[in-house]
Amino acid sequence: MANFCKCKIGVLHMCYLGIPLGAGLRRVATWEVVIEKFRKKLSGWKCRSMSWAARIVLINSVLSSLPIYFMSLFQAPKTIIKRIDKIRRNFLWGGLDGKRKMVKVSWKQICSPKEKGGAGVVNLEIKNKALLAKWRWRLEVDKKALWSKVILDNYGTNVTRWRFSANKLKDMSTIWRRIVENSLDARVPLLDRESGILFRLIDRVSDVVLVPEVEDRILWAHDNKRGFLVK
């Protein structure tokens, strides 16, 4: 078969398009490749010659972008988020030489938006959740895509806006279950009875047809273009 398809024979664990196949995504060791990218990138930088503003620019344009490929598919362990934040924080305050530097502003404030007095550094934990939620959005607006058909055929078409039927969650792959679970987060945790009421309400609202000639479509009210954007 390998000769017919003109491909190599590999064994798990192996990488495909930079993603480890068959590896435990919850294991910290699986994410070491991401940490190594930071080490290689920082090894060629001389932070002492950079201004504080220049470091902020590099953190957002380079360092915060290094784990995005992984985070767009997998939920990063909190340990990894903390290690990446430590690397970014040390670079910001000039602590790459291994010495402890005095921190002048809390990291939470550094990651706050500029309009709220922060430096606008990307909060990777929030970014990770937003990237995973993007897949749920794409499933809603692009159901004719091949990957959408595969997901719906595999897990069932009983999808009501932002949820799968509860009995399907336990049967999902680890990757897709993480994506769905992240999109189900509520501002206030709901009890089972309250969740049932909410989902029944969503079902009833979804059955209402306002304009028969126009197909309903989901909109994202937080953006002028009504699209789910991950900034």
Can you put this structure into words, describing what you see?
- 46% of the residues lie in helices and 4% in strands.
- The chain has helices at residues 2-5, 32-43, 52-61, 68-71, 78-92, 107-110, 124-141, 146-155, 166-169, 174-183, 192-207; strands at 14-16, 19-21, 159-160, 163-164.
- The protein is globular and about 65 Å long.
- It has a two-stranded antiparallel ribbon. It has a two-stranded antiparallel sheet with strand order 3-4.
- The mean pLDDT is 76.
- The chain has 231 residues and is mostly helical.
- The chain has 2 domains: 2-122, no CATH class; 127-207, no CATH class.
List keywords for this structure.
231 residues; mainly alpha; 2 domains; two-stranded antiparallel sheet; 11 helices; 46% helix
Offer a quick outline of the entry:
This protein is 46% helix and 4% strand. It has helices at residues 2-5, 32-43, 52-61, 68-71, 78-92, 107-110, 124-141, 146-155, 166-169, 174-183, 192-207; strands at 14-16, 19-21, 159-160, 163-164.
Number of strands: 4
Q: What number of domains?
A: 2
- Biggest sheet descriptor: 2 strands, antiparallel
Mean pLDDT over the full residue set? 76
The radius of gyration over CA amounts to 22 Å
Number of helices: 11
Instruction: Please give the oligomerization state of what you see.
Output: single chain
- Secondary structure category: mainly alpha
- Main-sheet strand order equals 1-2
Portion of residues within helices? 40-55%
The H/E string reads HEEHHHHHHHEEHHH
Strand content: under 5%
Shape: globular
Parts with pLDDT < 50 across at least 5 consecutive residues: none
- How far the N terminus sits from the C terminus, by CA atoms, comes to 43 Å
